[in-house]
Amino acid sequence: MKERSEFAVVNHSVPRGDGIAKVTGSAVYTSDMAVEHMAWAKVLRSPFARARILSIDISQAKSQPGLIDVLTGGDLKGLSPYYGHGVRDHPLIAIGQVRFVGEPVAAVIAEDELTAQEALGKIVVEYEELDAILDVDTALAQGTPRIHETDFADGAFRGFDDFPGAAGNICQAVHVAWGDVDAAFAVAAHIAEGEFYFPMVYAYAMEPYVAIADYDAKGQLTVYSSAQHPFMVRHDLAQVFGLPLNSVRVIVPYVGGGYGSKSYTKIEPLVAACSWKAGRPVKLQLSVEEAFLTTRGDDARVRIRTAADAKGQLVARQATIHLNTGAYAENSPMVCRKAANRIVGPYRIPNVKIDCFAVYTNTVPASSYRGLGGAQVTFPGESQIDELAEKSGCDSVEFRLKNLAQSRESIHPGMRPIDADLPGDVREAARMLRMDRPLAPGRGRAVCCSASDAGAHPVTLAMVQIYADGSVSVLSGSTEIGQGSHTVLAQIAAEEMGVPLEKVRLVGSDTAVTLFERSTGASRTTTLMGRAVLEACREAIAQCKVMAAEVLGVPAEALVEERGGIRSGETRLTWSEILEKYFQMEGCSIIGRAYLRKAGDLKLVPVFWEIGVVGVEIALDEETGRITLESLVTIGDVGLAINPAMTEGQDLGAATMGLGAGLFEELIYDGQQLMNGTMLEYRVPRFSDLANNVEMKLVQNRDGVGPYGAKGGGEGAVNPISPCIANALHQATGVRMRTLPLTPERVWKALQEKKARAST
Amino acid sequence: MTTLSRFEIHQPASVLEASQMLAQYGDDAGIYAGGTELLLAMKHAALNYRHLIDLKVILGLNSINVRNGSLEIGATSAHRSIERSAIVRQNQPALAEMESQVANVRVRVTGTLGGNLCFAEPHSDPATLLLVLGGTVRAESATGAREIPVAELIAGAYANNFLPGEVLTKITVPCAKPSHRAGYMKFQVHERPTLGLGLWMETPDDGRTFTSARVAVGCVCPFPTRGVEAEKVLTGSRGEVEKRLPEAADLIADAADLVDDHEGSVEYKRHLIHIFLRRVFRKALREPVS
Hints:
In chain A, 27% of the residues lie in helices and 26% in strands. Chain A is α+β, with helices and mostly antiparallel strands.
């Protein structure tokens, strides 16, 4: 393996390839695009959380000048209108009933957006309102009707990813167990027990959902979309319209952020059905407010207990997790699976029993949110680690060090051993935070950590094209969603092919051109697509060597590979020179390819453990209850940072996003109505919320299965932030908070209660 | 939020012409003076004006001057220009400082003081401070002009007391004197403040005694509200006043119609008035607030 000092392009903080285009506004997003003859759609949304649709009268709307067509649930004959990769429960537009306020009931297609909007007001829908089922307890109660009256067909990933399925209003149930928790709790020296709540959140991306669909007369469907997972969208579209995969082309231009909210299929089937009905290309651009009504993160109620023995060794953890999954499954079955795995934490615990349920309610459908269940369960998990440390009379960092999995230690039976240095990471975070310094009044410090089974299912296919003029194209199905993957993949190709970075172009993602990539999620792109690109480059180089041997008339074994080409005695040929001599023609290119699948060193799950280690020092204004961040430290245990500056950017971004649910983010329902689904009322973190001191460190032990020992980052730091703040608050005040976000009023009330208890 | 509905924008050459346009289009017309609140309300279909009358194009309506011991601020002066105005900083520093904290810089460069007061958003920072600084506004129409104290301008949440055809042209604020102390503080978690508190006091002896005071609270209630009863207990020696701050805070809270909402409970808002009355008192005296 190359030493780090030998890298020419990777492990260097080269500028983003798309930086100038994005800063100057010339980068093209789906929102910027138009296609010839394009019409616009607007969506009429349900005002009821649960109701039967008795009739939809579109006659008035039809008379609106400029109107082309109207799509309703009655128009879908000939389609398979239910989609979903876990459970096919989601109609592309409401069919006969609605299940949440905001569900699309009708779509108007018009020559322009304003005309479409004006026509919406002329549609008359008659509903029969039913009792809405708005929370998990109601949904699970005896006698509560089912939100979905029928059992739906499994989507592409049910069974495949080991989802056992469920019944009634339970969308998904996952059970993780080993050892004997009851026996362990019976003899434990210290037990922490409590109920925690992680709020309903919205993964605010600057670009709301947008898609352009063109279902042409030949039955070819082309879709431009701000989708994270174009191949999953292709799968669902092919299924809805009964089309072969080669007739569905999903093209993803630049995407204005996702954070999970754009994973899997969203508005694409609706827009495609509009085009199918109207016989025109159709664009649908949602507003941010409509995006709030499209997907959110699962809120979680976690009943959890954790036990340690007299020596401070963890002996058992038991948890029951209820996720409020909303009206449709979306990706919540996977969130359920991951929450169940991730609540165990990066610790050696001999007895574990986790029961996790994703529960349907008549609220906005929940799906992926950065960290995929990790943030929801790390809050209770890491809070209880501090509680137990205190009960054990042990410093919280020392307590963690005693119980954290060592590198290469197996803590989840059947899973990949830990491929990170967790004790080293935690020790370093504590050192950076200077935990030994005395604390000023109103201040608290804490370090928290998490380990997530990341990478998702490893099926990643890639191609590189090597041109005779020395340029290189990388054809990748990974989406550049702002995380910088196009830059990182170009760095890897430039490193391997020995060409300047400027000579590498990223093509994709475009399902008609780029090969299958399961997803751009689970922090996998550098690890899996990066490795596929590396292997594709190596395969192209192998082809070039055979060509060079023929051109030079020497045995291939006699060639010595040097970066960018080969040497044979005094003769040195670059890859491009070899191609030119071999084909005797200008303008040629060859393709190198790589097909990664769940085999070899990618057979064990997870692909890698994604580590989150953060430390904070908070400052509390005791009079108002407001918490601000004095210091933040992050550790990125990423194996090797292909681009260190961007990797640190991911850590800071994830930690900052985690502040949201920690301090102020929460979607609030009043009855069936979402009350704060606008950017004026939903408070996301701002630059002014950043800590006064930020220190980031990358740990590069090259212990991942990705290129050069790399593994993923970008989601880790989101998970441990909120318990870290809660633990620091406890240190500052003695108050233990089990409900997020830690709003000033909530903290103030807890302080008042503590004072009241102290005075009685 | 939806796409802006169809509307026509009119660009009057004078206040008189603007007033005539208002009279002509009646309830179908609204005044555009920056649009930072107006356009949001229109996008949410909370307001549906077919005609917008653009005051910002009227020359001279954004001037800032001092006349007869008062600041005269043209209605279309942007928050940012008031914040940065040497005249305002010199003659009413509390106003310049408050303006520098309004919303964010994008709002401040576009939004205007006149627009802010007319819109009567319950979370308006300027209205709360102007209540204690003794601000008045000038309303002009085709039939005449009148001066309205800011306290009488606000009719309620999102409601003002202008007569049909009246245009706000000028805000007048008495200049600060050496014997005056004034300050504004807010507590903010969300996009708009949770609490705004303005305090003005007269002290003939550099803060040892206070002969009169005005205090107003905003954001916690449907419209900025003077604490008239509280003002009565905020006079006397500094020691007496400081001792009575909790009593004054309760009187302010009693005077305001505190609202339970996502910004906080009535109980919490009452508590915040206590905390911030003490802080703004110190701030007005140019002392560290906590």
